[in-house]
Design a protein that fits this description.
The protein has one domain. Helix 1 runs parallel beside helix 5 and helix 2 runs antiparallel to helix 4. With 131 residues, it is an all-alpha fold.
């Protein structure tokens, strides 16, 4: 059997499982990865400064979604080179992080950002005095 086929089949199966785990987390039927990315994109922009893995995680999830879709829609052959086994390893590590609540969204939910507690500006104080 072709090495590329084995790698792609492993990725395909692992991605399906990964997507279903994320779908269960969000209590939806399918497209858990898409929902996870959407939630990350809706987060406060300041999170990028606090969690350095934020942007690379979004990019990796999107890249894997494209790879999965190309295999799923038969745009690419399982026998062609689509990527390495490192995507499967990354998914397994990410699943471990999900279980221990150490994934980016779990970390984000525990953070507090200063803009929520920002002091009023001079004009806001003046407006409050006269109203």
């Amino acid at each position: 059997m072709n090495t590329n086929r084995i790698v792609n089949e492993n990725f395909y199966d692992e991605y399906q499982y990964f997507d279903s785990v994320l779908a269960k987390r969000f209590k939806i039927e399918e497209n858990g990865v898409v929902r996870y990315v959407k939630e990350m994109k809706n987060a406060v922009i300041d999170v990028r400064d606090v969690l350095p893995e934020w942007d690379p995680t979004i990019a990796r999830l999107q890249k894997m979604k494209v790879r999965y879709d190309s295999l799923d829609n038969a745009e690419s052959s399982f026998d062609d080179f689509q990527g390495k086994d490192e995507d499967v390893v990354w998914i397994k590590v990410f699943l471990t992080k999900l279980e221990s609540h150490a994934d980016p969204l779990s970390k984000y939910s525990k953070l507090e950002f200063t803009y929520k507690k920002r002091k009023k500006s001079f004009f806001q104080k003046l407006k409050a005095l006269f109203s």
